[in-house]
């Protein structure tokens, strides 16, 4: 299978690779905790994915120094931050601005509109992406809110500020 990830790119500034690796190390404990909590709280999400539980998804927030690798297999669940130069092969890639991706996770933004306006780029197995989107749409609650709550008042404040800046950037 041909890799859907971008070829390694040159760093935009000296030390960019080191910054990306440090960001991944710092984000990973939170990501691991989030994915375990979501799996325990919302097991039906995995059933909705069917055969696509074993699909490797790359979620690429374009302005961040890393990508997220998701394999939603409840037996071997993976959500990890990875530097761009170490991206694994993926069955599907979802690429867009971080705040748009955050809104899409909680179905606060229309994924079709974002795709057709070219704010969101999807490549690879589109059926897997549609299944993931449908599973998230059917989920009760908000992954972003649950994640923010795990981090307490600072997490809720950060999420509120991110959402406010997203709203302001659209006006």
What does this structure look like?
- The chain has 171 residues and is an alpha+beta fold.
- It has a single domain (16-141), classed as Nonspecific Lipid-transfer Protein, Chain A.
- Helix content is 50%, strand content 16%.
- The protein is built from 7 helices and 5 strands; from the N terminus they run ααββββααβααα.
- The protein has helices at 16-41, 44-49, 98-105, 111-116, 126-137, 143-150, 152-170, and strands at 57-61, 66-71, 78-83, 92-96, 120-124.
- It has a 5-stranded mixed sheet with strand order 3-2-1-4-5.
- A hairpin with a 6-residue loop joins strand 2 (66-71) and strand 3 (78-83).
- Helix 6 packs antiparallel against helix 7.
- The longest helix is centred in the N-terminal third of the chain and has 26 residues, at 16-41.
- It is globular and about 40 Å long.
- Residues 1-10 have low confidence and may be disordered.
Q: How does the overall form come out from the CA principal axes?
A: globular
Strand order of the largest sheet: 3-2-1-4-5
Q: How many beta strands in the DSSP annotation?
A: 5
In CATH terms, the superfamily is: SCP2 sterol-binding domain
Structural class: alpha+beta
The domain tally reads: 1
Q: What characteristics describe this protein?
A:
single chain; 171 residues; alpha+beta; Nonspecific Lipid-transfer Protein, Chain A; five-stranded mixed beta sheet; 7 helices; 5 strands; 16% strand; disordered N terminus
How are the SSEs placed, and which strands pair?
Blueprint: H1 16-41, H2 44-49, E1 57-61, E2 66-71, E3 78-83, E4 92-96, H3 98-105, H4 111-116, E5 120-124, H5 126-137, H6 143-150, H7 152-170
Parallel strand pairs: 1-4
Antiparallel strand pairs: 1-2, 2-3, 4-5
Helix pairs in contact: 6-7
